[in-house]
Every structure is written in C-alpha cells, then in structure tokens.
Amino acid sequence: MSKLKALFLVVSLKQSSEDTNTLLLSQFLAKQLSTYDTNYEIVRLANYNIKPGTYTNVDSNNWPAILEKILDSDIIIFATPIWWGIQSSLIQSVIERLDELHDEIMETGKSRLTNKVAGIIVTGEPDDAKHIIGNLANFFIALGLTIPPFGTLTVLCQDLQRKEIKIKKRS
C-alpha cells in the first residue's frame, strides 16, 4: 500500500521568511501524521500568485499547480489564522477557485474530491474558530470531502506561545 499524501494549505498573510502560529501548528500536525506513514507538503499560499476568479485558468497565475496538488492529495487541510473574526482572505480565494469543482458536481453528480479527507486548523480566538470551522465544514461537504471526527485543530495563539511548542523546520 502506498503512503497517504497530506496537503496543508497555510493561508497566513505573512511571507515565507516569517514563522507564524498557523504554520507552526501545521508543522506540528504534519509531524504527527508522518508517524502514520503519511507524506505531507505544506504550501504557504501567500508565496503564490493566485488571482481572483472562480475557474482554474484565469490569466497566468499559480492556481492550476495548486489545484493539481489538491487533486493529488488524500488529505487536504486548510490552516488559517483569524483576522477580525473571520478566516484569512486567502482561504476565500481558494473557496472561490474551487467553485469550479462544485459546478462539476452540479453538472455530473460526481466530485473529484470524493474519498478525500478534509481537516481544518484555526489559530486565534476559540469563539471565532467555531464560526470559521462551520463555514469551512459546510464548504467541504458541498465538494464531497469527508471530515472525520476530531478533524479540526484550534489553538489560542497565546496558548501556543506560552507552551512554547517548538517544531524543527523540515529540511
């Protein structure tokens, strides 16, 4: 049996030179998944050019390559900080771009995401996290993704810093 592939879409707005709480929590979970014979990739979307749109091919940008990673993965995890009570704007861009897959479901009754597992990481205020998790879970279900029990991970940023969770960067 081949290894499972997990894809973490980290949507912190900071560029790759900065560690963020959302990235650190994603690295922590990725390390846990790797103990279950799972390969993973962490993609920081702030480092990519993703233009607004609801289709795959919108001018020249990096979305088609990211969509290919999503379709090639067994596990897809959205990881977002909370900004002013809601998820990062980059998550909304991904939702809008994945709308094309929803259109396919409406036309064919089939989803290219069936049998894939979804997860959610949220860093920030727990009450706001519940709202974000609800929105993302609804979106995942509409695309045919499966959300397992305990498929979400949230942490208050102060808790993360206080516990000093250190995660060695992957080479």
Strands, helices and their partners?
Elements: E1 4-10, H1 21-34, E2 38-44, H2 63-72, E3 75-83, E4 86-87, H3 89-97, H4 99-108, E5 117-123, H5 126-142, E6 152-155, H6 157-163
How would you sum up this structure, described in words?
With 171 residues, the chain is of the alpha/beta class. It has one domain (4-163): Rossmann fold (3-Layer(aba) Sandwich), CATH 3.40.50.360. Helix content is 39%, strand content 21%. The chain has six helices and six strands. It has helices at residues 21-34, 63-72, 89-97, 99-108, 126-142, 157-163; strands at residues 4-10, 38-44, 75-83, 86-87, 117-123, 152-155. Strands 1, 2, 3, 4, 5 and 6 form a six-stranded mixed beta sheet that branches. Helix 1 (21-34) links the parallel strand 1 and strand 2. It is globular, with a radius of gyration of 16 Å. The two termini are 26 Å apart. Residues 162-171 have low confidence and may be disordered.
